[in-house]
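Morning run. Coffee first, then this:
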Amino acid sequence: MKILVAVKRVIDHAIRIRVKPDRTGVETANLRMSMNPFDRHAVEAAVRLAEAGQGDEIVVVSIGPKAATDVILTALAMGAHRGLLLETDARVETLAVAKLLKHVVDEEKPDLVLLGKQAVDDDSNHVGQMLAGLLGWPQATFASHMKVIGNGLIEVAREVDFGRQTLSMPLPAIVTADLRLNEPRNVGLPMVMKAKSKPLAITAVAGLGIDITPRLLVEKVTPPRERAPGRVVANAAEFAAAIAAEVGKMEPR
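And here it is:
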């Protein structure tokens, strides 16, 4: 079974996001970047399938500037076999990402495509669903458990509003990973050094003939409202008085 995993390069989740002074976006210059956390779970799921003898080749693809090769290298260090970067410095929206991934799927012909359920920079939660729609493939989103059950079927447990839903679907299919799917392995320096010898191809998006023109206009980006500082009260009576005072400040609806 051939597995394709899509990964995205985002601002490291441990860094506090700052909005640009002109409010056209968020600051990304000179910040530490890393693989989208949900995508790490997708890579880990692919590697575990390969280790269990259920995956013959894992291909990792990313879309973005040449610097995005660092997240592909991380995936290769985790155990993927081959990397592919679709290089572009342009802003690529979710539909364009899905179109580009469809191109890769058409070229690579994988049996299973894994993605994180969403990217932490825009939280769109679009690409997996859009890709499934473009391909006409079955999909399972928000996966917290996954296993190949034979006869060309995969079983997926999904995190849904009412709890957990378990379903099976035929391959080829799309699965998007939730945080509960697994615990991604740490990548040590020896693993990174070994990964540098694995194949990594770079293809320019401009030469693919795919329209990635943005369809959305971002008018303004504003930071969230600063939280008011807390205070410590001496006892329950003081706590109740503080609540009553805050309620008294509220305007009647």
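The first strand starts at residue 2 and ends at 6. Good start to the day.
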